[in-house]
Specification:
13 strands; alpha/beta; 4-stranded antiparallel β-sheet; homotetramer; 15 helices; globular
Amino acid sequence: MIRFNCDYSEGAHPRILERLTQTNLEQSAGYGNDPYCRQAAEVIKTLCRCPRAEVHFLTGGTQTNLTVLAACSRPYQSIISAVSGHINVHEAGAIEATGHRIESLPEQYGKITASQISHFCKAHWEDDNPEFAPQPRTVYLSFPTEYGTLYSLQELQDIRHACDENHLFLFIDGARLGYGLTAPGNDVTLADIAALADVFYIGGTKIGALFGEAVVICNPKLQKDFRYFMKQKGGILAKGRLLGLQFLTLFEDNLYFEISKHANQMAERIKIACQHEGFAFLYESPTNQQFPILPNELLSQLEEIYAFAHIKRVDKTHTAIRICTSWATRPEDVDQLVADLHKFRRN
Amino acid sequence: MIRFNCDYSEGAHPRILERLTQTNLEQSAGYGNDPYCRQAAEVIKTLCRCPRAEVHFLTGGTQTNLTVLAACSRPYQSIISAVSGHINVHEAGAIEATGHRIESLPEQYGKITASQISHFCKAHWEDDNPEFAPQPRTVYLSFPTEYGTLYSLQELQDIRHACDENHLFLFIDGARLGYGLTAPGNDVTLADIAALADVFYIGGTKIGALFGEAVVICNPKLQKDFRYFMKQKGGILAKGRLLGLQFLTLFEDNLYFEISKHANQMAERIKIACQHEGFAFLYESPTNQQFPILPNELLSQLEEIYAFAHIKRVDKTHTAIRICTSWATRPEDVDQLVADLHKFRRN
Amino acid sequence: MIRFNCDYSEGAHPRILERLTQTNLEQSAGYGNDPYCRQAAEVIKTLCRCPRAEVHFLTGGTQTNLTVLAACSRPYQSIISAVSGHINVHEAGAIEATGHRIESLPEQYGKITASQISHFCKAHWEDDNPEFAPQPRTVYLSFPTEYGTLYSLQELQDIRHACDENHLFLFIDGARLGYGLTAPGNDVTLADIAALADVFYIGGTKIGALFGEAVVICNPKLQKDFRYFMKQKGGILAKGRLLGLQFLTLFEDNLYFEISKHANQMAERIKIACQHEGFAFLYESPTNQQFPILPNELLSQLEEIYAFAHIKRVDKTHTAIRICTSWATRPEDVDQLVADLHKFRRN
Amino acid sequence: MIRFNCDYSEGAHPRILERLTQTNLEQSAGYGNDPYCRQAAEVIKTLCRCPRAEVHFLTGGTQTNLTVLAACSRPYQSIISAVSGHINVHEAGAIEATGHRIESLPEQYGKITASQISHFCKAHWEDDNPEFAPQPRTVYLSFPTEYGTLYSLQELQDIRHACDENHLFLFIDGARLGYGLTAPGNDVTLADIAALADVFYIGGTKIGALFGEAVVICNPKLQKDFRYFMKQKGGILAKGRLLGLQFLTLFEDNLYFEISKHANQMAERIKIACQHEGFAFLYESPTNQQFPILPNELLSQLEEIYAFAHIKRVDKTHTAIRICTSWATRPEDVDQLVADLHKFRRN
């Protein structure tokens, strides 16, 4: 079985395992108070052009989202998200379990707009008794979105503006940040993200690490006491060094961006092959996730060889799937998939 | 600096890194739904002689404690723990953050007794309005305790009996379980733990793994829907395979117990050396943590070379420290420490 | 200013104040352990034809909803509600603050259907990883709804059936229960409600009491330890007697139903007057809340004399309002409103 | 049965019922947005000599404590309390249910000291990893304490000083505030309380009201968005007017203080009678709660006529009880108790 169902089927980029092996018996301070974490944080701050930022390392996406959003919110405050946002659909109520309501807005291609945000806040504050609804405090969005789509720089700037006007924090979930930043047509840089967001994270789990997400807290208000949140949520790794070392490796020699680009190129080839075969797509994505709509018959044949994620039945004879590449996707597997798409299609 | 301050200064047992490297580019299903996790679970169930158990893998101790205790408790229920229990002192209020009160009982050498538990429950239920206090539901204890001490089999059986009489779950925190099971004088087996506890965990982070704790749920009542708790608390690792593989390696060829025994032997040598020098101990521990009381002057000299954890000032001229060995402690480092203890003592 | 903006503008039915005054200096046990609470509970159980029920008294609607739903749910479980449900829009995130997600379904006239519920649950359980979303556990609905509309007996029976098939509790919010039960065309009885719901409450605050809601727990599973929930949420009134006495008074001589019917009749008169004038309604309601759509100009004139609740701007020249009557609405105030509707309309 | 077991056995001071009856059919805005609440707030601010304060009305003590402490705390912050503090022993884990740990300090006569507080905070901040324990943020104390004892002005000033030095809020639970302020020997005024506390409440439930506590928020930092907390915790009463009206009545003509003094005088007479008979006391209390230690035989005889609260068995033949008077205690009941103490003692 060749897996295209997600971007975390393999282990880590080999350089990471090498570094872990080389340094394995070194002794270091626990809980992230080690030189690797410090160095990785410095490198990230430099890349983000945000020297005042603080960087912390957590092990996974749900943990990161729930910890960051707890830090953003007083108990009566809510988070604004696209209805398709990861926190709204795939995290088992992790945010609500910290006591906060997610106010979900309709999305277009996985994205929400500045004007939706402003409109929502205006309605809240104009109510006779605003305190009868949670107070909006943070905008959550993903770059790329769950559908592989990207916000343009202009869209993000507009959202930032809406956040400023409405006293909102902006939190950008970058579980697949590298895939977004290196996508064809993207006009947003890492420094832009750092300049626009109050807090965001750089995903490692889906881009080359065994596990790990680097939280970059740009807004000093959110920096205070963040490690209390991390500890309380079970998010401080005893051997924190493992996280520092992985991110240090990923950000040496541009590795993070190189391997991200690779995944996008692999996805692009699959996309073109699908277009060639005349398949429609559920969303137009320039990143490592593609959402072609396939005839069920073809899909059945492919699924004897490949694993995909089913997204939804489009009609009686067609199904939209997600095909996911990653830093680890082998070109020969893509060759084979492209060939099989063509071959099965012809039969 | 040679670190004796904790048991998580190094990476993983080399066999684990080898296995991770060998299997690195294998593709597997995420979230623990992979063959390694399944195999590791089977091995653990066999070792525990508890075929009906369910085994889940989490990444760290605080995460494990808060997830398990959430699963044990309705919102109005409390956890009984020694005042020195890890959840009561070192987890940033993680348990309270899930809504539950910890009822802390006075400890002796880190341990609580069956009769304390029964007495506490009796007082609760005899109150005119029991509902004006949280309802005791779970007993939390550690094996070994925070002070390196061990419950005897009889003590655990008595506690089990008290739990049965008072409708309590028994949760055993085994962050250092291997160090306890292989300690000289210990009369408790892994199968005993599984037979007595409703749920417990086998610590990997402190005994040979990069990270990871294996939760063994013996009581079927606690098995239902446990993965919802894991997910909601951010505790399902995307590449769950990493956890399964580590525990599979640890439980091959008795490795877990061999390396645990090694740590205890290293600690024993330090203990004997301290006794030789006439130092008293804060607690009498047969495991990898030793708590000698050292003259401050000697301590200052040693701390130019070695890292220890300070526990408390005993008097103006003496300080109790914790010396911690681990699976990774090098005999030559212990030799040197023993020699230095003697040497500095003489000066 | 004559208030038609809500149904809690006045104090209590005079008989209640009389009883409070008569018994004021009696001494009684606190926290609801008094004879009045016991008697009121018995009377309610008899009226509900549900001898196995348990009845508890709380002071307000939000408190009742959050306490009952906490009792229905494990931490990873969610509540299904109409998007217009009170808990989803007017309670400041009180439910989420207890850790639970509300899954909101589209409503029609404030109501949801059995098939929506079944469909939602089916989707949950068919997911590859159901534990990545909260587990649906309770259906919340109001009788009457926020829009004054009513479920028919058949609709409620269908929902009960869907709940049974999907292992869901059914919780009926009866803040305005009396207004629903006595509405023209209603075919649901109090005994039906008790037979169909696992738990529901009979609203006192909006129907004749100073304050107070009577929670009727029909399902024994939800009865256990309910007072712990009440106490923990701050919901046990020290002088619980005040609640028992009020409900006892309301359920003597059919008072609760008489005064409910009065409110409906007052509303009916206003409704007919609006129809006469040719106004459309946002919802067709047979109960004490009416939602006519008025020309803005007329509304401005009326609002110099009357208080209404604005619901929404329908178009540039029309606004939908809520007109609310209650047990305390004076016929002469309705006369005047009807006259003014006609008079201002003509100008 | 004559009840001396608590101070909430009766209804309200008759003047309150009169006012409720007089105003019963007045229409007013809901949720505390009415003239009575506004006036009561003004009166209280004037009495407190704290014009910048905000005053809110809640229905009961547990609700007040959990709402105020939620407003004082970020998720990782804890509350310092005497081990005997009401929140620590009699509120079903209500504070922990909002996610916060209570750090309980040993008490002397129900009180804690400034130096205990400072010592605790110092230990927290000197830890190598302070974030491994909850961060102390608020000191909770009661005036009078659970044992009827009082802090002196000097003690409170010292505690305020310790709070300032350690960045702590001071919250004073005044469930029985009137009984404290009017006690013989007390040197603390209402204005002192307002000057020293960041937030406190004036208890109505136990001093003349049907129910109700007036929260006085002196520190502007805690004022912001407090109504969101109230709503989310189910603490905004629909007919808020009931609370405003009660407090307005209590603070007219010094009523609150007159009836408090009455209770203290009644208690004083019982105290003197006990002293006369040679009984020891568990605590020396100048307020409405007395804790004499009675011979079990005498107690049995008394309990055929009077209700008391048992506090603890002192030895085989003696039991400490709580005798509680209130604003409603009848002098003739005290006469009878005093006589019976003497009479039964002689037999």
